[in-house]
Design brief:
There is one protein chain. This protein has 230 residues and is α+β, with helices and mostly antiparallel strands. It is built from 7 helices and 6 strands. Strands 3-4-2-1-5-6 form a 6-stranded mixed beta sheet.
């Protein structure tokens, strides 16, 4: 990855004008578009759900957005009110989310929108969360006081890139699943311990920007399909 691309992971001094007004309130046109997208997804679910909130989170709700960032649109629902079978509801929501995000290429001001049905009891670690329903910050982001260690992030990225390549080439489903879990746990732990500018989180974003995470998932699904085919 070039130095120019590396530097795109540095934090900004202000929130993105594509999303926010000068008073750090969401632009009305963006809010309306995201409400419409959320409502379309709820119609697509084909079940009655009691929506507690629609929230906006991720890098564009913070100062660390990059050209590779997307809009994380969370629809907050109490899964217990749908069914007492937690695994059933979670599996249903994940399947619907994956199909929707893969099938529809939806953007707002040129930024891709990623839908996520979130259980209201789920812990969500983020330093920037904005309620679209309430038009206010739930967690207001703070400007980063120091630049991230891009050299260490790039070193971590290169190491994980080699691991991903090796796992895909192995065509071993369990190895790929273990690596995916390792990456998820690594990022979750880093966000909780060191925040958005942690070396591990930036390395994860670099992997995602080069579609390496997606390639790992694609390999998993292809291998799983082969394993149950006659």
């Amino acid at each position: 990855m070039s130095e120019l691309n590396m530097r795109s992971f540095l934090p900004h001094d202000e929130l993105s004008k594509k999303i926010w007004e000068d008073n750090e309130i969401m632009r009305p046109d963006v809010r309306k578009a995201l409400e419409n997208i959320a409502n379309e997804f709820l119609d697509y679910l084909k079940i009655d759900v009691d929506v507690e909130d629609i929230t906006f989170t991720g890098s564009y709700a913070n100062y660390n957005y990059t050209p590779y960032s997307d809009i994380d649109l969370h629809i907050v629902v109490d899964f217990d009110k749908i069914s007492s079978d937690e695994d059933l509801v979670e599996g249903f929501m994940n399947a619907k989310k994956s199909y929707w995000n893969d099938r529809y290429d939806i953007t707002v001001n040129g930024i891709e929108v990623e839908i996520y049905p979130q259980d209201s009891s789920e812990e969500h670690v983020s330093s920037g969360v904005y309620s679209i329903d309430q038009e206010k910050w739930i967690v207001k982001p703070e400007k980063f006081q120091k630049e991230p260690n891009l050299k260490s992030a790039n070193k971590k990225f290169q190491m994980l890139k080699r691991e991903i390549s090796s796992a895909i080439e192995s065509e071993d489903l369990k190895s790929i699943e273990r690596l995916l879990k390792k990456l998820r746990d690594m990022r979750k732990s880093a966000l909780k311990k060191s925040g958005e500018m942690s070396v591990e989180n930036i390395a994860y974003k670099m992997l995602r920007s080069e579609d390496l995470i997606q390639k790992l998932y694609d390999s998993k699904f292809n291998l799983y399909g082969d394993s149950i085919s006659l």
